[in-house]
Amino acid sequence: MxxxxxxxxxxxxxxxxLSVFGIIFIFTASSIPAAQRYGDLFFFxxxxxxxxxxxxxxxxxxxxxxxxxxxxxxxxxxxxxxxLLVATLIPYFGHTVNGASRWLRWGMISFQPAELxxxxxxxxLAKNLARPNFSGLHRLSGLLSxxxxxxxxxxxxxxxxxxxxxxLLSLICFSMxxxxxxxxxxxxxxxxxxxxxxxxxxxxxxxxxxRITSFIDPWESAQSGGFQIIQSYLGFHNGGLLGVGxxxxxxxxxxxxxxxxxxxxxxxxxxxxxxxxxFIILLFGFMIWNGFKITERQxxxxxxxxxxxxxxxxxVQATINMGVAMGLLPTKGMPLPFISHGSSSLVxxxxxxxxxxxxxxxxxxxxxxx
Length: 370
Fold this sequence. Notes:
Layout: H1 2-38, H2 43-63, H3 67-71, H4 74-88, E1 94-97, E2 100-106, E3 109-111, H5 113-130, H6 140-159, H7 163-179, H8 184-204, H9 206-216, H10 227-239, H11 264-297, H12 301-325, H13 343-369
Antiparallel strand pairs: 1-2, 2-3
Helix pairs in contact: 1-2, 1-11, 1-13, 2-13, 4-5, 4-6, 5-6, 5-7, 5-12, 5-13, 6-7, 7-8, 7-12, 8-9, 10-11, 11-12, 11-13, 12-13
Pathway: Cell wall biogenesis; peptidoglycan biosynthesis
Enzyme class: transferase
Pfam family, one: FTSW_RODA_SPOVE
């Protein structure tokens, strides 16, 4: 029993270590731009520290909430998230940055509903797939009931536009229905449809095509589309095995765009080298292993699907971000969980950890009674 209970502790400790690690590197990556823009070296790490506090407090409250009560939030959460995504598209409410309307802002407080959509979609799908009267994925009605929330979120996200989150949600949705026994014919049809949709999305937006061509050969557009990934390469190259030392990154000095957000792994690689990056990867791997061990212990289908979806969220998003930073995937504009600057992302991922810990707690008590 002690070993089973340790899964929750491992998850929570890993999340806190990654979050603190993130605050340190948000400071080292953003201090100079923050000082020049806001007159405060600690502008971004202070915001992240506040978000960490909010995430820990709200996560602790969520940890006390029975899973059956969390399940009841699926439909209200879907409605609320849909309304929030719609609000980002309304000029009075939405806040636009670099041509993307992804934020809601009230004074100094900003919120990105796309981050909440990840958790809500997983919760909604798990509840839908586990309901007693579910008609099954082999029936059109059952399949549509799973695809509908994904379609709603995807349409609203693409209007922002946010192709990266749409792609992530599609992968998670596909993973959850696949483990529930989605027929092979439908798997093939879904893959073909998804590839066609991705192709159309890329064709309709020239900047997406530019990202693809820059990914294939960044040196061909070294001063435009390929600039960011080349600067990321240089960061990893400069770091070598042991790194140049904490605070010693050169790429963060206006060479590497989004150094404290999407490409923070490159700064870590430059300052702590391969050793530092390997530590981050191993810590994520440790979290994911514990998440799947918690999934394995669940006896209720809803709990098992919820744990599986949440663990997939951590693993897929971390993999995509790292892949982009290392030039293995086209740029997606997706933060590294727990580490990249982003209040909404940090709070939501701390909620993910809290729910996984709650699932493990309840399975512990179930095994004790048996």
